[in-house]
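Dear support,

Our group has been running a series of protein-ligand predictions, and this particular one with iron/sulfur cluster is the one our PI (initials K.S.) wants archived with full inputs and outputs. We had some confusion internally about which version of the output was final, so please treat the block below as the authoritative record. The input we submitted was:
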Amino acid sequence: MGALRRFKVWRGDKAGGQLEDFKVEVNEGEVVLDILHRLQATQTPDLAVRWNCKAGKCGSCSMEVNGMPRLGCMTRMSTFAEDETVTVTPLRTFPVIRDLVTDVSFNYEKARDMPAFAPPSGVAPGEYRMQQVDVERSQEFRKCIECFLCQTTCHVVRDHDENKKAFAGPRYFIRAAELDMHPLDAKTDRKDFAHEQQGLGYCNITKCCTEVCPEHIKITDNAIIPMKERVVDNRYDPLVWLGRKIFRRDQLPAQAPAPHPVVAPRQPPPPRVGTHHIPLGVIWHKPQPDGLEAEVGPDGKMPLTEVTFDRAGAASPFGDNVTFPLPPDSLNYQHPKSDD
Ligand code: SF4
Ligand code: SF4
Ligand code: FES
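Confirmed final output from the archive:
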């Protein structure tokens, strides 16, 4: 049996709560989430804690350990001294649902506010080309696991609910930067959006968000500061200022953002014959329609896919006209027969 160590765990709900003391067995190599699972198994079966992958990849087990926002599944118990009391509390910036589970919908609302990637018209999927340097720049931001540790850390909204309306937070600044730096994004008003809608100006580049990011994304250096510089270039460049003094507004080149395409309503699927649509089998080289546009509404926002899409998940790579199971002769791979 491992050593007994002291823990304080916050228990309660939105009406209030308190830290409760526990002594729990800790074994070599264990992480904080292991201890919470042992607590559930032995002392507090109703302890609420959110988790999924236990591999630092789903972003569910965000909590505050000794006041520091961390992933429970990535925080080794060996981080703490053996006689240290480990205090586990819910994310402070979001409302508590119960115990260590918080309501993080603030983040999903901010995500929904963000206009989606707008590919250039006239370029079909499969024809997109970009330099490797541009791929790498945005790939850093795509490592985000949406744990919201950066969001809970940021002092602009931590303890300041009143700022939440006007401030999107570091997770969405990296999304804004990713799209603004994307060479194929046709939307031209990302900088204005970051400045006017996301509250980029509230950030005073303290780098606290960067410090807690489990994916080691350089949120401040690689996303927020470049975005702030782009906003300044866009709005306060002296040449642009001079141009505005010399020319009347109506003589300036139009700066209107590219309108988002309006997506035609989805057509109902064709009637089924037997278990398959006609034609039968996989259409491997199904032609794609030219210039497939991002599925956004007239306001530039993505629909709530899970609610509005007529099928769960993404479109099937096999085409829309196939239902499973496929007949064996439609499969590319055949199981060897037992007498082969
Ligand atoms: S650098 Fe900006 S976004 Fe990040 S924690 Fe500080 S104020 Fe918030
Ligand atoms: S940027 Fe980092 S800290 Fe913020 S949500 Fe993404 S992975 Fe988490
Ligand atoms: S359980 Fe998935 S990140 Fe911790």
